[in-house]
Amino acid sequence: MNYNPLVIANWKMNPLSASAAAHLFRTIAKEAKRSEGAEIVFCPPFVWLHLLPKAKRGLFLGAQDCFWENKGAYTGEISPLMLKNAGCQYVLVGHSERRKYFQEDDAAINKKIKAVLKVRLRPVLCVGEEARDAFNAEGKLINELSLIIGEQLEKGLAGISAAQARNIVVAYEPVWAIGTGAECSYTDAMKAALYIRKVLAKIYDRALAEKARVLYGGSVDSAGQTTAAGYIKEAGLDGLLVGGSSLDASEFIRIIKSLT
Ligand code: PGA
Fold it and tell me: Atom 9 of ligand 1 has which residue's CA nearest to it?
């Protein structure tokens, strides 16, 4: 691992009120400050961004998505520059739910990544395969998975220089493990992370690939067959992208504490 673990709380379309969002943040922040050694990024819905303080002591602000233009007649959209001015440092790009419900394709994702980098924010490029059986019976990555992740990386990063790519975080999120209760084994997560680094080395170089932060996301929690800490300590991932468990303050605090 190159750095302290990076833990991103993706609140998705939750919680429903300003008071609930402020309370959730305050409860987690109070405990998180005492636990040295993990960087935590909160990605609330846009309307609650202003309730959370800008970066301080290992706590950062991020957004769940953005548009690729900085201003203009784009009804309903939020620009990277607005996010920067709102105190964000990270922006999730290409989350599987954006790909699925909003038909975001790799070309749109590529434009978003470029726009995010242009205002000097860090994109978190989410990649992942749809079906579990993209791992064969021996637990090996078969072509389908390699093709999907390879294509998502190559197309998502098209035209992005190595100097810019150093600021990109990649999140491996097997779609079949998001919000489903299905578990991705440490071995499978490790293989996927290795594959991601292989593709990055092919597009850029080995040094960049080794330094890149590769996160794991998909039904992460503090206990069970696989645990949040296990993806970092056993599988060697650089951090986590946490959905459901980041909405439960006690569980999210347990996750953070288990990492250090
Ligand atoms: P989950 O979501 O932890 O609820 O599975 C992860 C994600 O979609 O980022």
Answer: 243
3-state secondary structure of 209: helix
> Tens of pLDDT along 41-75?
999 999 999 999 876 778 999 999 999 999 999 99
Q: Is residue 150 classed as helix, strand or coil in its secondary structure?
A: helix
Omega into 15 within 30° of 0, i.e. cis? yes
Tell me the pTM.
0.95
Pocket of ligand 1 (CB under 6 A): 10, 173, 178-179, 217-220, 241-245
Catalytic-labelled residue, pool 95, 104, 129, 183: 95
End-to-end CA distance of the chain: 13
* Spacing, Cα 178 to ligand 1 middle (Å): 5
Amino acid making up residue 62: G
Token pair listed for 90:
């990270």
Token code pair at residue 108: 């749109």
Quickly count: other Cβ atoms within 10 Å of residue 100's Cβ: 12
Asked if residue 228 lies in contact with residue 258, where contact means CB atoms within 8 angstroms, the answer is yes
Determine the distance separating the centroid of ligand 1 and the alpha carbon of 244, expressed in angstroms.
6
Rounded-to-integer distance, Cα 154 and Cα 132, Å: 22
* Catalytic residue flag (residue 50): no
Give the helix/strand (H/E) hosting 90.
Answer: strand 90-93
User: Is 173 marked active-site?
Assistant: yes
